Amino acid sequence: MAANRESSVSLKLLIDEKTNRVVDAEAEKDFVDILFSFLSFPILGDSNADDVNAKGLLCNLTMSNEFFDFLCSFLTVSIGSVIRALEGNSGLGCIDNLYTSVKDLDEKWFGSDVKDIILDPRIAQYHNCKRQSLIFPDRYESFYMIDPRNGSTFAEEPSLFIVSDDLEVNPLSFASSLQLLKEVKVAFSDIEEQVITVGTKEALSLLKAALTSPSSALTNGLIPS
């Protein structure tokens, strides 16, 4: 079987030369697709209490199997569904801004019904504990996650977006670019343009930054320290 080739996308960054921080990114739909896909990821994947106990990962804790099963079920819930359940305030870095951006973007930037499914990705049947106190009702009778995309992408094409350092996503326009520069208080003369390639390594770094950085996901995820 042939090995899967790593895919990559190009991304234009506008960087403040004085601070070496990203002001914004000018992105085509391929990069925005990467960002939107973060919301569809399960926090970990399917888990099993017996497997975890067998590995000896529980130390000095006493709990019933049902409660431990309940805790493990948290890891199977998608990031988007978690943020929705917490009404957009998960405390998970900049990912809340990404969720709000999807919520605020007009339907025309997405395929049919894609927007709602990005905001609340559905969980496959059996990827939950038997006595679940949290209600995530949208499940398919399948072990497989649904594919919410329109064809092969989340965003409609052609699409151009501006992405701020804290992962606010808006349609690209002169007005939106100018407004962002005013908000971050960076002079045009201090702006440096860089075009980078975002592959697997960069996407993983960006995902980590999106979940941990409160305001600088692009900088922390894509700019070498």
Strand runs, count:
7
Strand order of the largest sheet: 6-5-2-1-7
- C-alpha-based Rg, rounded: 19 Å
> Share of helix among residues?
25-40%
Kindly, what is the distance between the CA atoms of the first and last residues, rounded to a whole number of angstroms?
38 Å
What composes the largest sheet?
5 strands, antiparallel
Q: β content, as a range?
A: 15-25%
| Class derived from helix and strand content | alpha+beta
What's the shape?
Answer: globular
Task: Kindly describe this structure.
- By secondary structure, this protein is an alpha+beta fold.
- The protein has one domain.
- It has nine helices and seven strands.
- The strands form two sheets. The protein has a five-stranded antiparallel β-sheet with strand order 6-5-2-1-7. Strands 3-4 form a two-stranded parallel ribbon.
- A hairpin with a 4-residue loop joins β5 and β6.
- The protein is globular and about 60 Å long.
- Mean pLDDT is 76; it is low at 45-60 and 138-148.
